[in-house]
Fold this sequence. Notes:
Largest sheet: 10 strands, mixed
Number of helices: 8
Number of strands: 51
Strand content: 25-35%
Radius of gyration: 36 Å
Amino acid sequence: MQSAGPFILQPGAVNDIVIGVPWARDAGGNYGPGGDGRIGSVCLLYQADDIAQALFDNNFQLVEGPDAPDLEIVELDRELILNWSYKNPLSNNYRENYRQADPVLLASGASDPYYRFEGYLVYQLRDARVSVTDLQDPTKAALIAQCDVKNGITTIVNREETDVPGQSTPLIVDKVMVNGEDKGLFYSLRVTEDKFAEGTDPRLVNYRRYYFMVVAYAHNGEPTNNIKFILGRNNVRSYEAVPHKVEFEKMGTVLASAYGDGVKIARIHGQGNGGGVLRLTPESESQLLSPPYKAAPPVYLPGAGPFAIKVVDPKQVKPYDYRLVVNTDTSVRDTMNGTILVKEWELYGRPTGSGAPYQLIYTSWAAIGADEWDHAKNTWNFLRNRYHAGTERVIPGHGISIVLRQVQEPGAKFFEVANYPWLCGGATGWWYVQKPPKNGLIEATIEYADPNKPWLSFFTSATDSGSKDWLLFQAGGRVPVDTCYQPTSGMGGLPVPSNQPWTVFYDEPRLLRTIFEGGWAPFGLARAYEEAALSFGVLFCNVSPGRDSCLGSTTARLRRMQPAISVTLEKLPSVQLVITPDPTKWSKCLVLESSPSYSLSRLVGAGMPRVAKWRVSRDVLAGDTLAYRNDALSVSTQGFSWFPGYAVNLETGERVNIVFAEASWYRGDNGDDMLFNPTHSLGSSGDAYGGRHWILITTKPYDECQSFANWLCVGDGPTIDNNGNFDPASMLIQKPSGERVRLDSFYKYVAWIALPRVASSQYVFRHYKDIPTEVRVTVNVNKSYRPAPTGEAPTFEFSTGEVAARLGDIPTAKSALDLIRIVPNPFYGRSGAGRGRYEVSQIDTRAKITNLPQRCTIRIFTLNGVLVRTFRKDSEEPDVEWDLKNEYGVPIASGVYIIHIDAPGLGQKIIKFFAIMPQIDLNNY
């Protein structure tokens, strides 16, 4: 074959013709039948011919890797911030949609011949002479950051074969090309250390030059391909940066933020937390303690909002108000060069205080390949889109970046393969189960106002309850998450999930049951109050006030709460519970009876279990927590008391109703005083559980539990079946008037349940005023972005006014004149040693005048007033280099010099400089 032609060769012209001959040999007789190496060689020759033809058809162009992005570097005081992005729409990776086929893989019939963009590698280079070919040399290049698409691909290995003399088979070497973190892409990086520092201090040095390079790489998933990793070669170059002080920039610059700082975020419409921890500002939390008991709107602390905002360029942050709108319609798309673009979110802005309409600033797009799009449903493939991974987007010209990540709520999702042919190879009768990391649990914390008094603990389901485990085991067995499975019976698999209510409470491997070691859990995972026996044959003994959630149950509908009216795992809110001795923050609530049986509760005359107690509250507000009030029993008084604190739905910013229980039978553990004051004891029989002071947090907005009164304040009567017969597990109860109500009218609002205790006897309290210290319990779970009930898209607002840089601050610029220096000073023959030198050759001498304002005139004089050199500066450069020569290029003499800096509008500065000039040695180079 030949590489070029036909062509016309003009007289006298020269043209190189490259001719190649495909060659192959089956020396070992591995490919020919019966070990016939001749036939095997022909077979191999056909393969080589196919590869040669593919290369010829592709003009001998091998696959190119993804182009490198453009790098911008923010220079600060002993700090550099690297931001990279694609500016050229003609780049093969403009929207990170790089996807190129390898002609060799195509010719060989590979199942996956394509290389796809995978991530970035960020290097610090030792000096400006280092190129992309030196990146594997640790003396010349240091890898300082790596990021990649969150898709399960981590370590990428290239396999190389090397012929070894005397061996019949080549030596195989697996070379690790990258150790991917698989945490998603980012586009900014703060650098404060020099990887090539000389000495013990690795920090960056102001006015020293540093060099960086960012490259993109791609990955191929073909199992038979030895080259999984390729590096992009186009647009790869070295970038120089010089850290320095910034006060003198822009006629006086005052920074109000640092890299990574966040801002407050207000939720205007919709839901969603992007998998992040939510924490309300003190102002919002104070607002929800008073009617109407809601923060309008809820505002979240910096770094603890429904998505991530951070400062990436403190000098560019401007006073702006922003509005971010999340797109939840995944069918809204555009196309570019054959790539499907799905709109993720839009950012609007306006100058703070302008009152102007919001203007569109930025649109975030997810680039989806053809194999990532579910054409049958006109939406993206929910398993492979990058929107779920979360990608940092740097907002050009605004100095901030935003990371918004769509998440899946707690609990598993089940997909029938028949409806998704691209799943599991289209296996007939199979299902795919998908579950978020930690089953949607983000974080669970306990914080004390006085850390020296950690008084709150919990009776854990696994440790303290023993055979009386108050949390459910999963019905129907277990399967790994994010996998394909065929429904089976028994513990080896799961039944068909279609229309099965247990799917909405699927919690394997019991991650939501480990909160505070099993002392706090979703109410849907609590065992029913009346349950015959556990799977291991031990009687349950009625530990929990839960209800039959129909997980694997065949009991009558009367005894069951249906998922449609339950707080299922996907409906769980992120909550905060505050317990405090401050009476202004207490919540009026109902107290439920939690004695272990109906007979015991009737013996003490406290009412039926799971129902409001047949008593009126203690007079806690009057300060006497041991005296009952004299009010007559009624719907407005029966079972009411006060909980020493409050609960908040962090998603909505609403205060919610909270209910607690106690067991009147356990008087020795404060179970009969209508107060929340658990002890730490299990009791003599091992089932007192500190008086069984269950905490039930609901989703109902706070109304002092008045909405629950008609369902729970029903008198001293038992639960019954449809025929009026006593049924302890039933949800039906009859009032003294004869009217029947269902207890699940209340229990359908319960989201979380916990069984608290005090950590030790030293913290036991009876009165609320004796609570050792205020404590906050926060549990955050995933919440996907969804529109408001009224249809508005998830919308959030924030402002950068508090973190905006102040430019043109004349007093700061005037003060910055005192920072002007000439370095090194004194000058002893050269500017420094090693990489700290300013000189570029042996006969070169240099010094730098640093921290200069944008416009100034620099005049250098001898001590007797002779003008040596003049520099006129009008640029953003922070310094001026002086080669220690006069106006005529003659080296200055050793001695003392006076440097006068005149900055119009700011002032003047005079500094002294002492130089000892070196003798020129022309013999050594």
